[in-house]
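DATA SHEET
Item: assembly model
Revision: 1
Owner: S.N.
Input lines:
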Amino acid sequence: MGSMIAARDSSSRRKNYTQIILYGILICFLLFIPLFFQSPYVLHLFILTLVYIIAAASMRFIMTSGQIPLAHAAFLGLGAYVSAVLSKHVGLSPWLSLFIAAFVAMGVGIFISFPFARLKAFYYAMVSLFFGVGLLQAIESLGKLTGGLAGITAIPTLFNTASKVPYYYCFLALTLVSLVILYRFEVSRIGWNLKAIDQSYLVSSSVGISEVKYRVLAVAIGCFFVGLAGGMYANYNVTLSPSSFDSSVTLWMIIYVTIGGMNNFSGPIIGTAVLFLIPQYFSGLKQYAPFISAAILFLVIFMFRNGLVCIPGLLMAFYKRKKSTSKSR
Amino acid sequence: MILEINGLTKNFGGLTAVSGIDIKVNDGEVLGLIGPNGAGKSTFFNLITGVIPPTKGKIIFKGKDITGKRPHEIAELGIGRTFQLNPLFPNFTVLQNVISSFQIRPRSNWLDTFFNTPVYRKNEAYILEQSLEILNLVGLYKVKDELAKNQPHGYQKMLGVARALAIKPSLLLLDEPIAGMNPDEIDNTIEAIKRTSQRGVTIILVEHNMKILEICNRVVVINFGQKIVEGSPQEIKENPEVIRAYLGSGHDTKH
Ligand SMILES: Nc1ncnc2c1ncn2[C@@H]1O[C@H](COP(=O)(O)OP(=O)(O)OP(=O)(O)O)[C@@H](O)[C@H]1O
Ligand SMILES: [Mg+2]
């Protein structure tokens, strides 16, 4: 919120400039990725990473309000299947079905969170867990529409080409827009109120923050973006099967968020890049991915309490300390 | 009359924590609420502020029936409060705690908030200014940028008062505001309460510490959920029933 920013000391202004420059470099690098990496497989990995970044960032958004979305992968699946069915069986343009999928996921999110928002945040975790299991069951049993366990195939795609380059740029743009929107929410009073509710619902409500309104809002926004990510996935990947959206996928998202750093907006982005992209990229490492993640998890738990995002800051502090001790000598 | 309570009752299973209490609170007064441990004082506050629904009875604030409203709606109407165990936003700074407590006056709509429009920025600038003024009033200006959870107990209690003032209440409920404070902090807090009262805010405060009676216009004593006596601080101090029920059992200052 504005006054929150104003309240910080002036040294943050210089930090802001370096930050802008760093983001500029990062975005340039991302724009050139299709030139650096010509292999369709690698580009495929980058595209999936973008989808998971939206999913993980939207998950973290819900988590800032103290709620744990244990059905987040199921909502990814909901978005994916809605967009797949609408574009394949109803004949809508994938560009339209994608956004309808996001709104359907948002609506369903509101519907399941509203009755429980008055109770403790913990109930949302429980109800979403059951909802996730139920949704996958429904997808499996609606064989005619969804292809059942075997999955749905021949989903219309967003672009009429075999090349992955247009998908990469399109998804990069969608991801950046989604992240900017989530970021705007987070740094505004809305984001602060979500964090306030997480810290004490008693205090929050005593100063006029409606718990129900903000908890449902967090879920609505989070589900919108994960539904969008699902739709993107469906109309890119051509095929879907329920196993891509089971609770182990939710678990992985939670790991991306927590290892990347729950308390920082970039946490889920870095977590997804490190834990999803890198093991897949070095495909020799793929079967070791769980072990690598476990090792990083331990490292984070014991050394970097605030996740991978805090490593640069720690390094800077270490470097500064070294410099000052060598000066004093 | 700002607040009128009729036959307020709360049963927790078999236990009647508050039993048919009638209280009238005049505009601008400081009303003390005293009674032994477990008398039902905190429950009384929780009933007024909608944290728990009453079993029976009516709560009328500024002529409007507010029984059964949710806590955030009560706050919007202008009833601020602190809590006995004083929960805070521990991971916010002291200043952020107060800024986050400005939700109502002013309130920006979601579009202004999301797009960081001039309206929103003006509101936030005003909130910052007001928050700093409140921190000055309660004497926390010097620690404004420190995390709330790292503050000593006395500061946290005062922060609770600062937070409640941020909603710009016309009625302020303070649950044991000076419990556990050192003498300096007590003087400081009593001064802040006096000044708040001088600004026209009606105050109801719960305390075990008899020192606070000095600033009350009127005192109500409750025991076992019932109002036993009501009168001026002097009358209360001399009332034999009070001495038996309350003072006789020792000045208990737990929590
Ligand atoms: N949520 C609850 N569920 C069950 N019993 C409760 C609840 N809250 C309070 N009580 C009981 O109601 C009675 C009144 O409690 P209350 O906290 O209102 O007392 P109090 O006057 O504030 O006491 P103290 O001076 O110790 O703060 C106590 O016997 C308490 O155990
Ligand atoms: Mg109490």
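QC remark: DSSP finds 15 helices and no strands in chain A.
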